[in-house]
Amino acid sequence: MEREREARRRAEALAEDRLQDIYAKQQQIELLNTIASTANQSDSIAHVLRAALTAIGGYLDWPVGHAYLARQNEHSGASELTPTGIWHLASTQPFTAFRECTEDMSFAIGQGLPGRVLDNGEPAWIEDLANDDNFPRAPQATSSGLRSGFAFPVMVGSEVACVLEFFATKPTETDPDLLWLMWQIGVQLGRVIERNRHEEHLLHNASHDQLTGLPNRRLFHDRLTHAIARAARDPFNLFAVLFVDIDRFKVVNDSLGHPAGDELLVRVGQRLLSALRSNDTVSRPQGESTPRPDDTLARLGGDEFTILLEGLNEPADALRVAERLQSVLHEPFSIAGQDVYVTVSIGIATRPYGRTCPQQGAQASDAPQPPGRTTPDDLMREADMAMYRAKSLGKARCEFCDPGMQTQALQSLALETDLRHAVERGEFIVHYQPIMSLSQDGITGFEALVRWPREGGLVAPDAFIGIAEDAGLIHRIDLQVLRTACRQLAQWHADYPDAMLTISTNLSPRQLTRPELVGEVRGILDATGAPPTQVRLEITETATLGNLDELIETLRRLKALGIQLAMDDFGTGYSSLSYLHRLPLDILKIDRSFVAGLDRDEYSQRLVQTVIHMARNLGLEAVAEGVESRTHAATLRALGCTRAQGYHYSPPVAAEQATELLRTAFTAA
Ligand code: C2E
Ligand code: MG
Ligand code: MG
Q: What SS3 class is residue 352?
């Protein structure tokens, strides 16, 4: 009886399994049939791909699917996958970030999920997108809620013609049966492509210019729309549209004939492209602090090209690119046996409007204007108008749509050129601001602050440090200042050995990632004979934005030289407390904005007091910056602060005056 029941149960279970099996098979067959019949009925690759994406997405009950087309890269000729913009999306909203980033990328062989399929012609599965080391879209996928995915090839003969990818919102395990089914579908789709090879070009041609192979007006418009949307989300994302028009193109065309004109357009396109940032997104080093997206060069038609630049720091960056474009056209083109000289007129429109104005000292208009309701057409029109102005002003030149921006960008470029010369010639001078002991009102040391003699005056650091950082010059300036300051310290130390004076210099956060830094500092200490224990290096909280472990390691190695480390402008930075105890610091400099508030509000007082307490708890010396009055000094003293620096005692002064201050203080004492 018992055995009979057991046997029945097993038979039922078996039947159930079979039934499920059959049901699954039926579904698979249905899927294959659907795709086969669309494939047979339609001669449009786009249509068949879309139908396949929808059918497979429905079958899997997965929300996202997308198709790539294999093509040759415009520069390298190597095979790569470009997005078709043909999607299966169960709903649009949650996947926007992922879709945009996918449509902005091409994948070379081996890169990312589709690149792996392109590499070996085999399906690939990623069980956990967030932890795959070859899935560059992981951040966007994660933020869109996607967790796993797979991709498979559409083969024509032994060649990968397309790749389809699908994504699920849950982790999944590799399913070989499913991949086998997808492989079958890939073969079916391959037949459609083989039948309609010419149309593959159409798919590309819909977005590309036939003559030059560059993106066409439509694709450019698309990219620009995305750029505007990105800038609306991140108002500091400065981008620019350049309108480039060949000067006197008509003359070439008329005198050498149309084929020569066409050839010239193709070759001008190639040279322009060579001056731009590579279009290959994926191979760019990860972890760059602000990776700039690709530049897009498009041909609108005739002799008109447009360029989209994103992720700029200031309008002058667009001008730099424009100058590069002019210079790659310098060499003549040899066309139809003749040397043809080409210049272009360039118009530039940027959004949002620039945010730095170096000539006015500090970051003048730090709040960028919102992009408003800028449309792609607005920007194209502005750039076009600027280009016309460039033409009317004598061709071979570049104009901004906004004349104010033009002036600003030109000044910024001139400043950079001058700055380079100043660095080459070591023209910077150093001023010294005394740091006082609050208990004894005596000088305990100096902060060395750089000054740049220019056009009869002294330029303050805020007006050029940022530019020097962007131009990769800052480390040379910082080291020049450190060398001068150490030499000065050695001199003062010899003259006033009992004073035990300290010298502080500032290190740009960009310095701290340079592997040579520690060796260079050691070299300067050795060469100048400055006592290392009396040398202090000031860093700012920005330094902690990068790799904290690496920073800590660098700081440890600096401290091993015997020098002391200070956190400058404390309280203005980012994550203050969470990392502070991990950094091997000796000094905390309280930012002058808090000190300035001491007379005005109780909040600042409490804040300063908290910082002083915290410094004490962490065993750090607190130095107050920007002490401008007797009240400031008294309040700080009452709050337990021991050191101070500010106009109340002395502004930064030249070396001779600083020596004079010392002489008065120490001879009187
Ligand atoms: P910092 O390191 O915080 O230097 C203190 C700044 O506050 C100096 O401005 C100083 O002149 C100013 N200051 C001093 N006392 C008072 C006061 O009582 N009231 C007010 N309102 N300001 C006071 P400076 O010399 O213009 O330098 C500005 C910043 O430029 C420095 O801020 C530092 O971050 C940077 N810097 C200066 N020299 C160098 C350098 O050689 N290398 C690098 N990387 N940065 C430097
Ligand atoms: Mg400082
Ligand atoms: Mg400071």
A: coil
How many whole angstroms from 447 Cα to the centroid of ligand 2?
Answer: 7
- Position 357 scores a pLDDT of 32
CA of 590, nearest ligand number: 3
Q: Could you tell me whether strands 564-570 and 296-301 are parallel, antiparallel, or unpaired per DSSP bridges?
A: unpaired
CB 652 near ligand 1, within 6 Å? yes
- Report whether residue 478 contacts ligand 1, using a CB cutoff of 6 Å: yes
Cβ–ligand 1 distance for 625 under 6 Å, the answer yes
Neighbours of ion ligand 3 (CB under 5 A): 568-569, 625
Residue extents of the structural domains in the chain: 17-205, 217-413, 426-668
Check for a shared fold between 17-205 and 426-668: no
Q: What is the pLDDT of residues 416-442, one digit of tens each?
A: 889 999 999 999 999 999 999 998 889
465 C-beta closer than 6 A to ligand 1 = yes
Asked if 32 and 184 touch (Cβ cutoff 8 Å), the reply is yes
How far apart CA 349 and CA 332 sit, in angstroms, is 28
Find, among 55, 53, 64, 60, the residue nearest to 91 by Cα.
64
The DSSP letter of residue 130 is G
Residue nearest atom 46 in ligand 1 by C-alpha distance = 506
Q: State which H helix or E strand residue 629 sits in.
A: none
CATH of domain 17-205: 3.30.450.40
Q: Please state the φ and ψ torsions of residue 82, each to the nearest 5 degrees.
A: -115, 145
Contact in structure between 508 and 542 (CB atoms under 8 Å): no
Say yes or no: CB of residue 213 within 6 Å of ligand 1.
no
Model's pTM, two decimal places? 0.58
Give whole-number Cα distances, 87 to 49, 109, 185, 200, in Å. Answer: 9, 22, 17, 17
Confidence of residue 517 (pLDDT cuts 50, 70, 90): very high
What is the pLDDT at residue 212? 87
> Which atom from ligand 1 is nearest to the alpha carbon of 569?
3
Q: Structurally, what CATH architecture does the domain formed by 217-413 represent?
A: 2-Layer Sandwich (3.30)
- Say what the pLDDT of residue 257 is: 85
Architecture of domain 426-668: Alpha-Beta Barrel (3.20)
